[in-house]
Queue: 3 jobs
Job 1
Amino acid sequence: MHVRPRRVALAALVAASSLLLAACDGGSDSASGPAAGSGSGGKKDKGAPTVPASITADQAQKALVAVTDLPAGWQLEPNTGLDKSQGGGDEQIVNGSRTECAPIVAVLNTGRLEEDHKANAQVVFTKKGDQTTVAQDVSGYERAAAEKAMAGLRTAVEKCASFDAKDSGKKATVKVKKAAGQQQKYGDESVSYAVTVVTGDMQMDFDLGTVRSHGAITTVLNNYSDHGDRGKAAFAKALTKAAEKLTAAAAKTA
């Protein structure tokens, strides 16, 4: 069986998000002072600024792993992303009738769990002289939406051991399994899992780790070939660093 490395979409990464920080005005509580808004010298107390509902585009960008976070021998692929819909969508995986498996398909097609993101950034690295790819997506949501997305992913990992799909229009089988052994927890919650896509005599293998902190979610993907170290060391380092950066980026959000 031959391994077919994932062909990531070449696209300018567009991440747009706007958050307004508002201040609440409060009147003076002093009985002897001037009434709020009356006379000269009257001053209104300003309350604490509203907590942002999600991370911004700039914060998503700062949560990306850098090539210096990986072992030697890896290089950045500029202007490259995981979202295959940006390249026309001809190579997208189409889910069969099992709706509970949709989060797995979404991650493989776009790098993220949900389309209704408030901010997004992606980065792709390849190993020199190899066909192994390590990539990362960072997406910002409101916290309730992020929690719901993670719950859907957990269900998919548990219930979608194998399901039918189409890859680039051809019949495919997608196999999913939770990472073996005791998994380290990252952020507020995390899921580590492996996915195999078999299309005819071609096979694509992925290690994935998805982490949520507040309303921000990052997924790190390792699409490895059948030789070398299979990207395991780089994937482990990238996942740890991605979780650390995501937690910092989301710390001051709701």
Note: The chain has four helices and 14 strands.
Job 2
Amino acid sequence: MGVLPHLIVGVCGLCALVASLISFEGIRRQLVNYRKPYQQRLVVRIQLMIPLFAVSCYISLRSFRLSLIIEPVREIYEAFVIYTFFSLLTHLLGGERNIVILTSGRPPVSHPPPFNKLLPPVDISDPFSLLAIKRGILQYVWLKPIICLMFALVEITGLNDIAGINVYFVINLIYNISVSVSLYDLALFWKCMYSDLRPFNPWGKFLCVKLIIFASYWQGILLAVLNWVGVLPNDSTGDGYDDGNTLGFAIQNALLCVELIGFAIGHWHSFSWTEYRAEALPGCGRLPFITALKDVFGLGDLLYDFKSTFQGDEYDYRRFDSVEALIAHPTSKSRMARFNEGLRFTDSGRQKYWLPNASTAASGGRAANSKTPLLVKPRAGSIASANVSTRAIYANSMLTVGSKEDAQSVANASMYTSHSIEDNEADEHQDDPSLLEGYVYDDNFFARVKRDRPFGDKNYPVIYDTQEHQNSPQLQRLRREAMARQQRGLA
């Protein structure tokens, strides 16, 4: 008999299979209702955590040797999910720039005790504070592969003790500091933006992500302590298990296999596909299944975000400025920092402008004497370039012309083709009712016009189903107007 009885291993395998099937069905329904790519790609990436955990836990029960290969993959993806959840919350709030504008004028938020005695309050309306929080979350994603590589090197070389220093202890210390900082910054962001996140019912999503990570982390810590004090001794009988396996390690994976069913059900309800159905988003096109799948696994948006966060060049007061004359809270340090950067108010504080500086002129932004707030420098040669209509496929989308999500989506699309829309002319009559009638009744006409939409080129072949036509609010409006004209004619 191995570390655990075969019956328990079989039950764990069945639980892992059930959890994976529930998760895969939820993912499939997301992909066939793929109407919000910016948001749903993040949702699916979070949902993929369930089958990955299920497979890795069951394999670890069957073979300790194989677990040495798959465990690092699971842990790296676990770190990636923390960052993905932060990106999802950011998107729900309209993007990073909208967060800075939304929180302008609010008082800074104090840290949870006891850190409020040591650290100054957090002003998330300062783009540099937002960047610091994002870097704190993302550093775990950057460090986790390095930590796994260091563990592997120590395991292979056997250099556990160098100059009297326990290498395993040092690496584990770095790991615990990194994951603690990442989770703390995520909780800090949650505290700063909770009132704005409440309309999106985020608690279910938050618990689904946090609980599985805490279950994996703290169960492992507890069982490792029990193993260290001798309560759970090593057991390497070799009957289907490899030498070096421990009872505590097996119990941890067995518990996770069973717990994953509950997590899968939680993901089904918290990351539900129903809010992306045609009935919930009338008039909104969708992407084909294969295209949606490519978008989920595309790396362009990740590379773009990793690079921009690491460099931090796109985070400054001018790019995160609003056209409204918002004044930072008196206790905010960013208030004086904005003045030092060149922000000035006029007309008794009702209007504002930025003094010209060298960086504005060098970046190809506004003219030197412009009093218009600098938004985002134009991106030539992209789907969202200045010559292309950037009206979103969903009329009520929070995405704007200059949103970072636009650039991330362009980066994702470039992973599959080198072609992009550069010279298309925007439709001059996109709000004309006759154009909408063309969408509804003429498929060829719609195929030509949709090229001017951000998801209308070959990278994003939008499908506009008959069911969506029937539920379209624009079509319902046209019908009401037609009925009103008929009634006036009869009168």
Note: The two ends are 90 Å apart (CA to CA).
Job 3
Amino acid sequence: MESLMIADDNYDVVYGMETNIDWNQYEITLLPYALNGRDALDKIIANTPDILIIDIRMPELGGLDVLKYITEHGYKTKTIICSGYDDFEYAQEALKYRVTEYLLKPVPWQDILASVLKLQKQIRKECLQNQKYMQMQKQVEKNMPYLRERYLSKLVCEEGINSFDLESFQFFGLHVTGNHSTILVVQLDDYLGFEQLHSRLEIESIFMSLSTIVSRTFLNYFVCDVFIYMDQIIVCLELSKDRTDNDLIHVCRKIQEEILTEFQFTVSVGIGTECKSMEDWYSSYRHARAKLEQIFYVGPNTICIDMPATDSVQEKYIYPQKIDQLLVTAIKLSDKTQCGLLLDQFFESFSGAKKKVVFSFCTGLVHTLYLACLEYGWESHEILVSNNEFLYLIENYSSVQALKNHICKIVYHLCNISLKGKSPSTIINAAVSYINHNYQNQITLTSVAEYIHMSPNYFSVQFKQTMGINFIDYLQKIRIDEACRLLLETNEPICTIATKVGFLDGRYFSQLFRKLTLRTPSEYRNQQPGIHSIRAIPTEK
């Protein structure tokens, strides 16, 4: 309901307006009336009416003076003037104070009602518009982080900038003006490995945390804006005469240390060229990314501020065919020492080459190893993929050392397979022994496969064929068997036992225990002592 206040020095007029119209019928609430201008102003301040009917000439304070006050103080009250003076100057003055209706006395009640209802309709329309605006405003505020990130991505990482971009700068509350600034790129050194360990939601959450660390640390020393772009964190940094390159490197190093402590992985930072305006940001960004290419050789956890370019002359690199043949021979002899020396020579033969040369040589070597597997009957082709797949894999390695480690793992695995009498079942037995001695640790199919130099997929298949049970079920059986023993032979709390046998989540331990033993840990502990092993592992439906 809208509120209505009447201010007139003639009580009969006021009484007539209030009684001759059934205001409740029109959803209008009457506020206390006023018989002079001073009283009217006090009641307006106290009650803030939606609609005001006021006379011009009143004792103590004129109607126009009241309107001037509420206009200057931002009141949204809609006003109707009822006056006995048909004076153009009064009407002209009233227009300055946003008076909606100017009615001459005597005014028929029907005209007053029509004017009030007209204002009521206007008020409701404005209220609805304000609600829609507020909803839109809330939606914009909710999406502001995304909009700001998208705007900065366009400004920094996409070529071309127009006046609209610059004019929008203030809207997003950004801090760096572009004058005497630079662009930094922070990237994970082993994004491929990171991506394999985490879901998409986890990756987004971790990147948000990384962005917070980067922003918080830089803001202690510099003016900056930070945003996430694809798999990188971009920093728009305002340079200062009070800060040197050493200060910038110091801050980058602090960020690397905090991320390593918090997340146990490393990042490298590429620092772009200095910018004189925002139009230079794209060039600085590209320069920073180009510098990060150099970590392929210098290794992870690097700050790339002034890195030399790699040799652009590719013709001088000749594929070392003799080395790869010697490597196959060393594998046949299961000579891991010789294999290591040959791999060192292989990678030294293209030291300093561009990444595409490195990728080409490594793909050629793996293809040679694949052919050797087929020729000598080594049952290890599952760890070697086609050239195209391997090329995709190696292109995601962040350093030449990581790529070398991957190929070393393949070669050493082939050495194990080629050993006389070293059958797959013998290797699986070694894996079982490792599991039996390390079940209390956070071992995984991947970590056990690495221990015996097998690929996870190949190890999983061989384990199931040899043991008649898959890896996860076997590991769970070993852990639950030991938990059964501890429940019956010790008084340790259930949560302690769960931790001792390798479970980090007590609730998951209890659920799995009940699934495998058909009892809760508490029920099992209260049974007759003596039998404490799992009778059978239920087959999953």
Note: Strands lie at 2-7, 28-30, 51-54, 78-83, 99-104, 181-188, 223-229, 232-238, 267-271, 303-304.
